[in-house]
Amino acid sequence: MRSSTELRQKYLREELLPTLFCSGCGNGQILNYTIRAIDDLNISQDNLVFVSGIGCSSRLPAYIEADGIHTTHGRAIAFATGIKITNPDLNVIVFTGDGDLAAIGLNHFLQAVRRNIGITVICVNNETYGMTGGQLSPTTPVGYPTITSPYQNIEFAFNLSFLAKAAGAPYVARWTTANSRQVINSIKKGLQKKGFSFIEIISPCPVSKKQFKNPKDYLNFFLNETVRYSSNVNNETSARMFKDLNECFTGDYLGKIIIGEIVDVEKPSFHELYKQLKERSLNEFWKNKAK
Ligand SMILES: Cc1ncc(C[n+]2csc(CCOP(=O)(O)OP(=O)(O)O)c2C)c(N)n1
Q1: CB-based contacts of 55: which residues, under 8 Å, 6+ apart?
Q2: DSSP 101
């Protein structure tokens, strides 16, 4: 296993350090987890492409010594889809924020999940528009004040992982920045999936979000206010959680943030089906489909 210094020298563009992230931001941790996952899997940097839209989290590809493309707000997944379709052997990783992914970019996200494009999307969910100063995002919890909802937010939040699950993603995991080992494992699992993988990481923004003043408050919140997701309905608590989730679909459980591996299944990817389609004649394809 490489030391932190070796990892930094191998994978980061040291001339761009320190990053422009604010102190206490989770983006640096996520950068660290991502390069550790890549190193564990021994993926060649020549075989990697990072794609992002606009936002603080979308600056992440700039720091990694690999090909990267910083696209327009909300469109990272559209660009990533094009890259993956034309270069199926590349590992394509999208870094996106909750605003980039779930506001302006929501349609691209859901369509890519539905098509099961083999890309790995890492969403840094700080529940706000960090770069532009803390506006309401589609994942801001109801009741939270923001600069565009100064009294409080009266809109219900999307739970992005459960949206991905509902749209059919074969791998979905949701963690906080405090779950280092689990995030690294999930990025590794996601990169090994043939189809779409989604890793949502609830992340601090101590500058734009005023609820927590420093990283320590966030860490305590993440450690105390999360509950592990389980689809094991034999256990009474899990059974109740499962039932509640199916009924209300908020993705919170008794006010706590749900974390864990939400989906891990096998499902033919867009590429596998496309390859099959190319290999058979069209007639044969439709004949088999009709059976
Ligand atoms: C088409 C367009 N609309 C709006 C903006 C302004 N803008 C820049 S970043 C951003 C939101 C970023 O929030 P998020 O994606 O959650 O990322 P974060 O900065 O929190 O990491 C917005 C609205 C833009 N750059 N382009």
Answers
A1: 73, 96, 97, 99, 100, 129, 130, 131
A2: I
CA neighbours within 13 Å on the CB side: how many for 146? 25
Instruction: Ligand 1, residue 96: give the atom nearest the CA.
Output: 15
Q: Which residues line ligand 1 (CB under 6 A)?
A: 54-57, 73, 97-100, 124, 126, 128-132, 137
Residue keyed to tokens 């089906």 = 273
What number is the average pLDDT over the span 152-165?
Answer: 91
- Hey, whose CA ends up nearest to atom 13 of ligand 1? 129
Half-sphere CA count of 13, side-chain side, radius 13 A: 13
Domains and CATH numbers, the chain: 4-290 (3.40.50.970)
The answer to whether the beta carbons of residues 160 and 123 sit under 8 Å apart is: yes
> By alpha-carbon position, which residue is closest to atom 20 of ligand 1?
130
Instruction: Work out the percent of the chain whose per-residue pLDDT is above 70.
Output: 89
Query: Would you state the structure tokens that stand for residue 191, as one six-digit string?
Result: 């990169």
The answer to whether the predicted template modeling score (pTM) of the entire model surpasses 0.90 is yes
